[in-house]
Amino acid sequence: MVTKKEKYPKNQVVLAHFAKALAHPSRLLIMKFLEINTTCSFGTISSVLPISKASTAQHLTVLKDSGLVNTESIPPHMYYSINKKAWKEAQLMFSTFFSPISRTEYEAMAEFLSNNTPDLIKIALEALETD
Fold first, then answer.
1. Angle, alpha carbons 69-71-73 (nearest 5°)
2. Contacts for 36-40 with beta carbons within 8 Å, 24 or more apart?
3. Distances (CA, A) of 63 to 10, 26, 51
4. Would you say 89 and 21 are in contact if contact means Cβ atoms under 8 Å apart?
5. Alpha-carbon distance 45 to 37, whole Å?
6. Where is 27: in which H helix or E strand?
7. How far apart are CA 62 and CA 118, in angstroms?
8. Residue 106 contacts by C-beta under 8 Å, 6 or more apart in sequence?
9. CB of 18 within 8 A of CB of 66?
10. Could you tell me how far CA 105 lies from the centroid of its own chain?
11. What is the pTM of this model?
């Protein structure tokens, strides 16, 4: 069985994953803070955010799960840093997404749509028949 994510081009699934991880002002602030302060303890990060420590922990977990943030435990503290490889990948993907579409991207999108159009046409025709 094909999952919903398998129906989309891989680069769009990855970009959506990054976008979802960054889709909160606290997480955006954390990422910018970690760009300036390369490695920070949880306490330092939580002290700059206008939210509770529990919320800070949840936001850091989202960023960690997305691959954008690395963690290192040095008891009794947890330290956070940007995963530079994933961050560069996200930056490149967002830059590409917001740039005018290239011929290669256009052709890939055309191929994707042509491969999936029969299903879309079938659904549209079935909807028309039920009216």
1. 170
2. 38/81, 38/82, 39/72, 39/79, 39/80, 39/81, 40/79, 40/80, 40/81
3. 20, 11, 16
4. no
5. 10
6. helix 25-36
7. 37
8. none
9. yes
10. 20
11. 0.77
Tokens 């954390």, residue located: 30
Residue 35 has what DSSP assignment? H
Place of tokens 């009794």: 76
* Other residues' Cβ atoms within 10 Å of the Cβ of residue 34: 22
pLDDT tens, N- to C-terminus, the chain (131 residues) = 556 656 788 888 999 999 999 999 999 999 999 999 999 999 999 999 999 999 999 999 999 999 999 999 999 999 999 999 999 999 999 999 999 988 888 787 778 777 766 665 565 556 666 65
